[in-house]
Amino acid sequence: SEDLAAEVQRLAQVAGMAEAGAKLLAAAVEASGGSGGAELALRAAALYEEASADAGELLWKAEALYKRVLESDGENATALEALERIYRGSGGGPRLAGILERRATAV
Q1: What is the pTM assigned to this prediction?
Q2: 8 A C-beta contact, residue 98 and residue 74
Q3: Do 87 and 99 contact (CB within 8 A), yes or no?
């Protein structure tokens, strides 16, 4: 449920265990088989993004989850904004241009 996912996210942030929380939520995304997985994927991606400050390789996991959300909801503002942030931070070039274009047409 969304309430449980929100609580897992909150506890992971408070405990400084963003990566562990992200792994738990990402496993729930996989188990959901796509039904209602967007909210879980957004929360898991946000935690991976947070954890990536300490371990840069986690950023690709966040990116993959945001992209998964866009597969089911191509105009999801949260996912588009997050990918823009990731690509701006990593000098994303063509990927950044693509996301900016999608955000412009989603408005």
Answers
A1: 0.70
A2: no
A3: yes
